[in-house]
Fold:
Amino acid sequence: GAGVSQSPRYKVAKRGQDVALRCDPISGHVSLFWYQQALGQGPEFLTYFQNEAQLDKSGLPSDRFFAERPEGSVSTLKIQRTQQEDSAVYLCASSLMDTQYFGPGTRLTVL
Amino acid sequence: AQSVTQLDSQVPVFEEAPVELRCNYSSSVSVYLFWYVQYPNQGLQLLLKYLSGSTLVKGINGFEAEFNKSQTSFHLRKPSVHISDTAEYFCAVSEGGAQKLVFGQGTRLTINP
Structure:
């Protein structure tokens, strides 16, 4: 079956621009996670949804980062006024129980 | 707070040789443990997981890992590697269920012919 999909796969933004990253989870998966992976590092947790409820946003680095999942399926991660330090791969994962399945990621480059 | 340490940032081995990638974790509660593999420009693919039960876990592509609670380790092993195993490997821990994953820094496995 279809896995987790993310779009766009690559995004280049000028510093100060807003960006929106989309995640389509595996159908029926209740839980959805966002992670940020800096170059040469392991992924770091950003935020977690159970259905449409955002239960944990402790990993969001600043109030410029905002995530939503209004209908409990597709999720969008929005970054306002992007900064160079936001350059990273943003990974989305969905799960039904104990195992997270990851999408291919969106590589964001802020110039 | 949980943390994961992958003791080797890079591991070069020759094709058909055995390999062990080391992972240690710290946590104050019972944990679930995972190994993921990341090929260039791709997301993370699950290799294997330990939730409970037998401490020796077998995964895909001939990999296995052993959970050692006393040493808080979860090392990944393969008896004979192939060129296609060249990738980045991540160890991760969670407190179970629908909980966030805490990842190590990754180990780059390079297979030389």
